[in-house]
């Protein structure tokens, strides 16, 4: 009798724990800030020491992944995940300087995004982005005459290219892939060696240097880097070119940079996927971002940037986010999106 009662009590506790876990998970998914902080308790995995000792690339030289034992510093295919403290910015600066590189930074400022974000994005880029290197800003807008005035440092140039304004914000976002593809096949591709493709609704807050560069690089999404793989918001509709089946997908990314050749491959792949999908009247869950994630599942990036390279202050401070380099602006969709 006592045995049976004990069993029942244990079952009850087990159910309570399951319900509690489900409840927490639900709250987490719906973005309750307090619960969000608990996600740091979900382990990111660890980098095997055999891999650690081999991490590095042309820009960072040898990396020091053991300097950040609390986070994941490499991928399963042996690419480094760059965190503050794992690289020497001076080594990267020197390696890039020796190659006499031109680094392109593309950004779209269409509609109200221009007045709202562009000036701060560019002003802070002048302070923090690739300081000491040759930089080519490439701004795409439908109103070149409304460009903010900006005094550029030596070796830094700005090119403005006119684009047609798409009606819906989703279309503006998605059109970026084919516009970038054309630009990479033209002047941007001829003049730059590496190109970074960024959203405009953010600003630089710390030194963002050549340590970020590599043949193909993916940026970890600040909101999802602790989540278990199967909960990541990939496109799951099998009809989509961006679809990832259960069990597929390594990390959830939201931005990219790389060599001109690598970005031409990426933008061609994504633009084709977006076109096919739109032709059928369907849209991927997170638009161009879904296609980007599919591309990186198929073609693994050579380097991954930790969320320190692009952080959302809405998440709040975190010990593992030591020095954020780029900060998302607060979303003001009602004001900006049509
Ligand atoms: C940081 C991040 O996760 N970014 C992704 C997320 O962006 P967001 O949800 O942050 O979307 P968003 O409104 O910032 O749009 C993406 C970008 O397109 C440009 N834009 C967009 C609309 C417009 O009317 N005018 C304009 O200039 C602008 O550069 C903007 O930053 O989702 C988008 C699609 O769902 C894209 O995949 C973004 O890469
Ligand atoms: Mn954005």
What would you say this structure looks like, in words?
The protein is of the alpha/beta class and 338 residues long. It has two domains: 29 residues; 293 residues, Spore Coat Polysaccharide Biosynthesis Protein SpsA, Chain A (Alpha-Beta Complex). The protein has ten helices and twelve strands. The strands form three sheets. Strands 3-11-9-10-7-4-5-6 form an eight-stranded mixed sheet. The longest helix has 28 residues. It is globular. The mean pLDDT is 93. It binds uridine-diphosphate-N-acetylgalactosamine and manganese (II) ion. Uridine-diphosphate-N-acetylgalactosamine (UD2) binds next to strand 4, helix 6 and helix 9. Keywords: Glycosyltransferase, Manganese, Membrane, Metal-binding, Signal-anchor, Transferase, Transmembrane, Transmembrane helix. It is found in: Membrane. Its cofactor is Mn(2+). Pfam families: Glyco_transf_6. Its main location: membrane.
Keywords for this entry:
338 residues; alpha/beta; Spore Coat Polysaccharide Biosynthesis Protein SpsA, Chain A; 2 domains; 8-stranded mixed sheet; two-stranded antiparallel ribbon; 12 strands; 36% helix; binds uridine-diphosphate-N-acetylgalactosamine; binds manganese (II) ion; Nucleotide-diphossugar_trans; Alpha 1,3-galactosyltransferase 2; transmembrane
Helix-strand layout with pairing:
Blueprint: H1 2-29, H2 33-38, H3 49-52, E1 56-57, E2 61-62, E3 81-82, H4 89-98, E4 102-108, H5 113-128, E5 134-141, E6 156-162, H6 169-185, H7 187-191, E7 194-198, E8 202-204, E9 216-220, E10 253-259, H8 260-279, H9 288-298, E11 303-305, E12 326-328, H10 333-336
Parallel strand pairs: 3-11, 4-5, 4-7, 5-6, 9-11
Antiparallel strand pairs: 1-2, 7-10, 8-12, 9-10
The structure holds uridine-diphosphate-N-acetylgalactosamine and manganese (II) ion.
Manganese (II) ion binds next to loops.
């Amino acid at each position: 009798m006592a045995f049976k009662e004990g069993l029942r009590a244990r079952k009850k506790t087990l159910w309570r724990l399951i319900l509690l876990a489900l409840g927490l998970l639900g709250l987490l998914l719906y973005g309750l800030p307090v619960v969000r902080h608990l996600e740091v308790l979900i382990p990111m995995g660890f980098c095997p020491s055999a891999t650690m000792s081999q991490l590095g690339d042309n820009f960072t030289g040898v990396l020091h992944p053991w300097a950040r034992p609390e986070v994941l510093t490499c991928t399963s295919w042996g690419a480094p995940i760059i965190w503050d403290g794992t690289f020497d910015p001076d080594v990267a600066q020197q390696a890039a300087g020796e190659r006499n590189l031109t680094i392109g930074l593309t950004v779209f400022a269409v509609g109200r995004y221009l007045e709202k974000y562009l000036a701060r994005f560019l002003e802070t880029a002048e302070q923090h982005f690739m300081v000491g290197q040759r930089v080519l800003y490439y701004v795409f807008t439908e109103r070149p005459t409304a460009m903010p005035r900006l005094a550029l440092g030596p070796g830094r140039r700005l090119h403005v290219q006119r684009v047609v304004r798409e009606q819906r914000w989703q279309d503006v976002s998605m059109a970026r892939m084919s516009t970038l593809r054309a630009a990479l096949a033209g002047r941007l591709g001829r003049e730059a060696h590496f190109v970074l493709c960024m959203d405009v609704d953010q600003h630089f807050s710390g030194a963002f240097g050549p340590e970020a560069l590599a043949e193909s690089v993916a940026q970890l999404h600040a909101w999802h880097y602790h989540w278990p793989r199967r909960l990541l918001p990939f496109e799951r509709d099998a009809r989509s070119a961006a679809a990832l089946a259960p069990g597929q997908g390594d990390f959830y990314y939201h931005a990219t940079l790389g060599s001109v050749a690598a970005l031409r491959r990426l933008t061609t792949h994504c633009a084709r996927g977006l076109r096919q999908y739109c032709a059928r009247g369907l849209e991927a869950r997170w638009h161009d971002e879904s296609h980007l994630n599919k591309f990186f599942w198929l073609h693994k990036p050579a380097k991954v940037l930790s969320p320190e390279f692009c952080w959302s202050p809405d998440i709040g401070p975190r010990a593992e986010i030591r020095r954020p380099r780029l900060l998302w602006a607060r979303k003001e969709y009602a004001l900006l999106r049509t």
